[in-house]
Write a structure and sequence with these properties.
Helix content of chain A: 25-40%
Number of helices of chain A: 11
Number of strands of chain A: 17
Radius of gyration of chain A: 22 Å
Largest sheet of chain A: 7 strands, mixed
Oligomer: homodimer
Shape of chain A: globular
Structural class of chain A: alpha/beta
């Protein structure tokens, strides 16, 4: 008889994992996976060899010779890169290397958010941001997003309302550059307007820029961090989307009062040294070129999935073409419930993110879905979308026509 | 004027980091650092090259092809290695790769411990285990350790008392194989007795075996996990001590009810893939030989620091020579307060762990200290200990004689 340890578990735990990993779905439109041919394997081998040969012995010490903020050459690269690409004026001292941008979310919440607090987020946003708040016992309120990003007029109204209701708002969470899931890029004017609202309501901003390197356009607006006074904006970015998600390396840029408060809460003894070394070595000479090539791979897949959805779902699907990144956000007719669609399609090997899980107000996401396109081949994108349309037709009667076939 | 974000911080945060990292102390007797010459740099270069060339493209997916429990070849190695070395019968399915054994501690606590709960620990134990419980608002109670490990008679008495006091005990925490900081190895009989007590009191055991590969002896007793029914013992180990601490890779071995409940709480999107790949590749052919060579490096340093302390502190220092690992535990006369010694010596470039931080009852650790010996050179071990004795004499009047010099 196995011992019943569950009697000692905390009473407030999330649902356990349902099953062991059994491989990826046949048509995988979920998760921040990337294109396998985009992984710079040879350059990684070279970077690993160079970095290890030069300073592998420093692996004998926690944090190598760089301390708990992370490997200094990587922090220096991040600061320079953000200066060049996002107009920021950070130095290596303002960077905390973290174990993926997910840890950045955890650290921001650990420092700022307690039970009963409220965070203002974009109406459609990263699902994991909400599950994290939920775990803490915090609330969130969504603000609409249009093609220029979070609507700052609605943001001000929302904050006014929350103030009158006596809510304790802790920060404004935004994914301004390739918003997840809507794929928009916040305009420069909006960024400035957002900061004005934050000032009016005396609130910090958490800028999650983890897709920012993947805009189709060659340049992107300056980071909100670049436009603000010190201390106002906590910025995070990642190498997961621009290079490879299995490397768990992201970064927070913030001033010392914030970083110093996060450091004792980063209880993992540092982020993986080998990954930091290899990234620093690789990025110092190859980051910009790599990003250009990654973008062109992703743009081709983006266009392929947009075409496939248009063809298979016809006019029943409203697609907001993304301005970069790895996903599209699709709105279907009223009669479709994407949570049910996800369950049925999932059982048939087609995985999608139902809109309810990616929406501040689950009901408003009911007929929406996020499709990630970076990992499947173009052929699988087409096949998977065709299969999804077929299942959607069977379950909800739409689309009635797709792939040049009238469905009945 | 920088924005005052601190007004929004949670009110219950630990003290912030006091200062940016300014390099390691001149004589560094703290932290789980290891010997730099022990890092198998060339073998790592080879392992990185082989693993990346073979399957670097899988870095494009979270968890590679192995899912959230971690890279399967590494889990297979861990299960085999623990079978061979620790008598365990785990398979890859029972292993969760974690981002260092520190994350194992966090996950065990996240699943089991809430505010007001109690954990039973060894009287002298890893300081970080207590700071973690403290952060959760949980209590701990220490059980004495002798040369055979945790005293199980005292364990039973303690649990009886806690029961009569109505305390909610969640688990028994032990570091049986090279106990931190006392350096003892729990005998087989004690392991069995500990399990009997755990059964009597219907409690799970958390076995932290992160130093277990570094016993001076060629073999070690079976893990407590190996002696228990399924589900009773959560086991954790690490590559930090046996290979290199900057690689943040450890492992938990537990049954599915426990692992499945931990997985949604491991919110980091997986442990670094490159580190897992390189470790799996390296360990599959070189782990055992590496450990033998690491041990002999460490044994020489252990003997050097024991000799230095004996020489410099004379009979005023009572040293428990360790049966392996990277630290010794030293007891000084009543008049010495090692917290003050640590502060004064720290300011003069000699870092030590004061016993109060490594003791369940801070007062009982007042005259004790932990000295980590793996990282400094033998010459620095000698110089640093001499300097420490000199400072100790100046502050507390002991030792009166050391290094063949009468101090006055």
């Amino acid at each position: 008889m196995p011992y019943d340890i569950a009697q000692h578990f905390r009473q407030d735990l999330p649902a356990p994992a349902a099953a062991r990993f059994g491989g990826f779905p046949r048509y995988n439109f979920v998760g921040g996976h990337n294109d396998a041919s985009g992984v710079p394997v040879d350059a990684f081998v070279e970077a690993a060899s160079k970095a290890l040969t030069r300073e592998g012995r420093t692996l004998a010490t926690y944090g190598m010779e760089s301390g708990p903020q992370g490997y200094r050459p990587l922090r220096t690269f991040v600061a320079d890169m953000l200066g060049r690409r996002a107009g920021m004026s950070a130095t290596a001292d303002d960077v905390l290397v973290v174990s993926g941008s997910l840890q950045a979310l955890d650290l921001v919440n650990a420092v700022l958010v307690g039970p009963g607090d409220t965070v203002v987020i974009e109406e459609a946003t990263y699902g994991g941001a909400m599950t994290r708040l939920s775990r803490i016992g915090a609330d969130w309120v969504g603000v609409p997003v249009d093609k220029d990003g979070m609507r700052t007029d609605a943001l001000a109204e929302t904050l006014d309302r929350l103030k009158s209701e006596g809510k304790r708002v802790k920060y404004i969470y935004t994914i301004p550059t390739i918003q997840n899931p809507t794929g928009t890029v916040m305009s420069l004017d909006r960024r400035k307007a957002l900061l004005e609202v934050a000032e009016t309501f005396d609130l910090p901003v958490f800028e999650d820029d983890c897709y920012a390197d993947l805009t189709w356009a060659d340049s992107r607006p300056p980071a909100i961090h670049a436009l603000a006074e010190p201390g106002r904006v906590i910025y995070c970015g990642s190498f997961s989307k621009s290079i490879a998600p299995a490397l768990r390396v992201g970064f927070i840029v913030a001033d010392w009062p914030t970083l110093s408060q996060m450091m004792p809460l980063k209880t993992d003894g540092g982020t993986g040294a080998l990954e930091q070394m290899v990234l620093a070595e690789f990025c110092s000479s190859k980051f910009d070129d790599h990003v250009v090539s990654m973008r062109s791979i992703l743009k081709a897949k983006h266009d392929a999935i947009v075409e496939a959805v248009s063809q298979e779902f016809g006019t029943t699907a409203e697609i907001a073409p993304s301005e970069g990144g790895i996903f599209i956000w699709v709105t279907l007719p009223e009669e479709v419930d994407t949570s049910r669609l996800a369950a049925v399609a999932g059982a048939e090997g087609v995985a999608i993110n139902p809109g309810a899980e990616w929406s501040a107000d689950a009901a408003s996401g009911r007929r929406r879905m996020r499709l990630c396109f970076a990992n499947p081949s173009v052929e699988d994108l087409r096949e998977g979308v065709a299969k999804l349309a077929e299942i959607c037709h069977r379950e909800f009667g739409v689309p009635t026509r797709g792939g040049n076939v009238i469905r009945s």
